[in-house]
Structure formats: C-alpha cells, structure tokens
Amino acid sequence: MDKFRMMFQFLQSNQESFMNGICGIMALASAQMYSAFEFSCPCMPEYNYTYGIGLLVIPPIWFFLLGFVLNNNVSVLAEEWKRPTGSRTKDPTILRYMFCSITQRSLIAPALWVSVTLMDGKSFLCAFSINLDIEKFGNSSFVKGMSETEKIRLLARIPCKDLFENQEIRVAATRYIKCISQACGWIFLLMMTFTAFLIRAIRPCFTQAAFLKTKYWSHYIDIERKMFDETCKEHAKSFAKVCIHQYFENISGEMQSLHRHRSGQDDSGDEGEDKRSDEDKLLGIRAQDDMNKVLWNWHTCKPALALRKDQMDGENSSKLNGKINEGFNGFANGHAHETKKREWAVYYSKV
Fold this sequence. Notes:
Number of strands: 0
Shape: elongated
Helix content: over 70%
Order of helices and strands: HHHHHHHHHHHHHH
C-alpha cells in the first residue's frame, strides 16, 4: 500500500506527465481495441453505410468523452466557470486556455482510431461499396439484365468474401476502395499534424505575453485547489485527533491522571507538545459551524489575488520603533551605549 501511495502522490505532483501518460495509454488502447475488434459488415444496402460510418465516428466520440472524464482539470474548469465572482474576477482567456489544453489531450485517442480505421479500409469499403461502378473492374457481363435494385444488392456484398461470387471483381474493387481510404487516412494525419504544429508553435509567437499569463494563472488555479484540499485534510485530521483526545479525557480523566502520575513527566511533556501542534494546525477554527462558514465563504467569495503587505510592513515598523524606543530610553537614563563590563580575577600568593 505504501508503494501505491507513493506512486499516487508522484502522479499528483506531476499531473502534466500523468495526463500525457493517460493519453498515450488511451491511444494504445484504441489501437489494440481495433485490432481485437472483429469487423463484420452486414452486406445489406440498408445498413452498410450506417455500419461503416458508425464504426468510423462513434468510437472516437467515446474516446473523446473518456478523455474528458479521466482529466482532473475538467472539474477545476467547471468550478472556475460556475463559481460566484466575489472578490476575484473571472478571466475568460484562462478558461479558454484550460479548455483547449483538455481538448488537445482528449483528441489524441480519437485521432489515432480514425487513422487506424482509414488505413485499414474495411469500414470505408463497407460504407461506399454500393457507389462503385462495377464495369470498371473486369468482366461484368453477369451484371447485364439486372435491375438497379439487384445491382445495389450485389455491390453491397463486395465486403463479404463468401457472398460475392466473382472474386476477381471483388479483389479489384476492394483494392480500389482501400487505396482511397488510405489516401484519406494520410490526409487526415497530415491535417492533424499541421493543426497541432500551428497550435503548439505559432500561437506563442504572436501572443507570448498573453500566453504566459494564461498559462501561469491556469497553473495557479490548479495548485491553489490542491493546496486547499491538502490544508482541509490536515485540518480535518487535527480536528478529529483533538476531538478524540478531548472525548477520552472527559470520559476517563481520573484514569488518565493516574497513568500520567505513574509514567512520569516525560510522557506528559510529549503529549503536551503533540496537543500544541494539533491545536496550531486547527488555525483557530474549532467548531463545525465555523468550518462550514469558512468553506462556504471560500466557495462564494474567494480572496482577491493581491497579497497584503501591510501586515509585514507593520511588523517591521513595530520592530524598528521598538529599537528606537530602546535607544531613546537609553539616552534618557544616561547610558545610550551599553559598554561591556570586564571581569578581573585577582590571585594572591602565600609566598
């Protein structure tokens, strides 16, 4: 359990690497699922197009939504978007940056699925086999005399090896459609790569200052949420510990005093130090209603992003005033500068 906890803490501290790893795993899973998927075209004019296009579109949509579900920043984005304004204004550019970052990672697995599907060509063949001109692929004398409905039914059977009689025409038509499908796959990869290049490389060159600002504050929102959760956990742990200690002290006060008397003063000192540390971690919030009020205020009115310097200046000025007052009192008492007293030791000899 300790190893899993350390691994989980490492992944939480390196969330960007963790999300990149999740995207890579999803991409590999999509490719593995497609290779393990048994493609079976219905070979019917009414369902071929729906099945082929559905296989090309529906799994990428599922992978896209799964990428949003597995991304922890989605909840951060939703909270930042829906929270009341309060003392902290909302910046639409930060929300837009976070949404674009989540979308970019979520598009990796769907893009890989579409690429693999187009490179394989089976779904493309199933969807568009009824649109072929069978006379271009060999001897089509057996087609003469067929009605238009019979021709469409015959073309719908091209993806099925066992249902189409003329294998020569079937092989030629299959190669033709797969060639078009692979060309579409390479065009799709080129478009995705070029779009990613534009997003990752060119955008910071034009708006570098705005890009750095949105990136900084998006990281700040994420880190602030993590630190707030950690602080709440520490407070809850200390609150529970103090509450349990007080409960046992109230119930068994005489036994505890007897135990302290027998064990000595060292244990009581250690316990006192632990209590003081737990009391400090409570930060002055010692009641359920107070904690609920703090949490509600944090949600409804987050503090403004302007650190107060007046407290630090007040402390420094008080220290400076204290030194000035000490010096003034020294002058008033007639000894402005304290001189170090020298100690003399005198030794007498009996000789």
